[in-house]
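Hi all, long-time lurker, first post. I run a small reading group and we've been trying to get comfortable going from sequence to structure in the token notation. Rather than ask abstract questions, I figured I'd post a concrete chain and ask someone more experienced to write out its structure so we can walk through it together at our next meeting. Sequence below, copied exactly:
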Amino acid sequence: MRERSPAAPGRGTRDRTGPRAPVVTPRCRRALVGAGAALCAAVFTVSGAPPTSQTAFEASAAVLPPSAAPAVPPPAPDRAGRPTLQVLSSRADAVMGGTALVRVGLPSGADPGRARLTVDGRDVTDALATVHLEGAGPALEGVVADLPDGRATLVAALRGRRTRLAVTNHPASGPVFSGPHETPFACGTDDFGLHGGGTLGPPLDGDCSAPAVVRHMYRTTGGAWAAMPDPDRVPGDAARTATSTGAEVPFTVRVETGTANRAIYETAVLFTPGADGPDPWHAPEGWNRRLVYKFGGGCKGGWFVQGTRTAGVLDAGMLSQGYAVASATLNVFGFNCNDLLAAETMAAVRERFVLAHGSPDLTLGWGSSGGAYQAHQIADNYPGLLDGVVVSQSFPDALTSLVPAAADALLLDAYASTHPDALTRDQRLAVSGFPTWRSLRRMAREAVRIDPRGVCRAEVPEELRYHPGRNPRGARCELFAHTVNVYGADPDTGLPRRPLDNVGVQYGLGALLDGTIGVDEFLHLNEHVGGLDADGHVVAARTGADPAATEAAYRTGRLLNGGGGLSRIPIVDHRTYTDDSPGGDVHMRYHSFATRERLRAANGAVDNHVMLVEERGSGGFSASAPVAGRALRELDAWATGVLERRRRAPDRPAMDHVRAARPAWLTDACWVGDGPRRRVVAEQLPLGTGSGDTCAEAFPTHSSPRMVAGAPVASDVIRCRRVPFDADAHPVEFTPEQAERAARVFADGVCDWSAPGEGQQGLAGTWLRF
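-- Answer (accepted) --
Happy to help. Here is the structure in token form:
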């Protein structure tokens, strides 16, 4: 089978009349390439009309190729007649690899041939070609290569008037905004399997780079994937598919695999053999101009490696509808449990896709579990990368949802082992808030992600790993070290600062209030529950969060805020209910409500957040499944409606557009029933069995040890604000002896959950750099 490497964007000579444009006649199609463009000049002057006439405008729209970014509107026309200037492939300050897709907008009636573009004085006008921009007429677009490292100035000039745009170029391997690269870093290119066979091969450098490879795959009429024997010919047994736009095309797919930002990426899009392109001005016939970016789950072991798989781009449910699909190894949390680096990787891969295929009208996020972390935080902290998300088995973030619950579960499990007769199993379960005993044990095992020797991947050499005696400065395989660019390190110990705290937590308070445990049992538990030291080991002292790390978590969005970009896009929260899983599960339903409460606190409304809940075994999180698959299509319609309304009324509040565009089907709902499932449309509420609510009866919401201790559903307090213990003000009656003992147990005070936490604050901004 033939392999192809993608042509470098912008390579080759093109006449500025159009970049290999599809036009009205075959003769004009040929003429628009090279010097023969003059053959079509008559199209622009019908019946002697001047080029600036309406007739010429309509003719240009018919002849010129469409913009590479049709949904990206140009800046408002300049009153002084200056051209406008945009980078379309990324933010202007986040270009990677020295290459950018650029647009020069023209004043009405301007001659495209008179415009010039320079980079730091170097003329790059030949990289541009004339395109048609709907609603604005002709513009110039092109891929500008060989941008210098660091800051450069693009200057568009027309009739003596100039527009400047500063761009900042970064290495193709990064970093851009995530901070210094992590070391050590184990490459995975030689083990990354390509579709159709083979691997990417050995890395070319210390940044794990590899040449990009293009493979062509197809879906057989039997429903399987196969490599195309001849990339230039549709196989006889290839299926056909009807896309969301109504196009019926062969189910043949172009898959590109390469490296960006030290990750291995994959992109896939329907592509018919023999068609023009791909390039930014020749969208494949079957592509619906939507890109679905897939985020993979996990966390344990997600450090110091490039990874050997993505979240999977040969997704028949998505590709069959015309969606392009992209993913990368560092967007799989099992290889990279760092949402900041995940955001940077997604930006890098999306840039690669735009340079190859043009800008999608919409980019939609799709992720479950650890993939949901990424979708939430990337959308909130780096707005513009995602236009809507479908998440499943969701958590708000890694730091404040699963980590405290896992740490508390580990402490309760250790307490039960040390004091086996102190509480019955039912009492321990009541203290935990979890639905089953196995859930408690399962959650306790998740605390391994804050143990520096917990899960280190085999690719990381033993001699480079942390050991408290032999190698105290070695690679710590845990969450806080992996995020040290944000939290910082203690200057005295070199250890990463930790936003982890349980001082003042009254474990089992809810069980005490409902009479499941007594005062003495409550005091004994809190006297002996302890905390976790810097190496994740259970110790007698409670754990105190580092104040600087705590503030950084809030300011930078490591604790999901919800008031950044996430406040302006549609969010569909799909959940397959696993609270009652026989083996225990960590994906408990209350996490969806935690996200909703954060959105409510940040924005005053949750009109952009929809919850869909169904039972285990019902199809799960797949674009081919009845509920999740429809959720993707409906999200597309929702985000499309928002886009259209934003174009018509750009000054209206974003939430107005979101409310107006939401499809009727996308509303809170659950699916119940043992036979044919019945859809129940109702607001989803964090209620338990016995509440009388149909969805809550079918899918009751449980809680966590911290919530049993009085913490809010939002789970957004890292370090609680404490008040002195006061037996007289306590809701449970203490004897004098018990009150005296409680004062000793809670000598540092008890949590006042009605107040904001210590250091709790809003986002410092979006698109932050480290």
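A couple of things your group might point at:
The two ends are 44 Å apart (CA to CA).
The CA atoms of residues 616 and 697 lie 15 Å apart.
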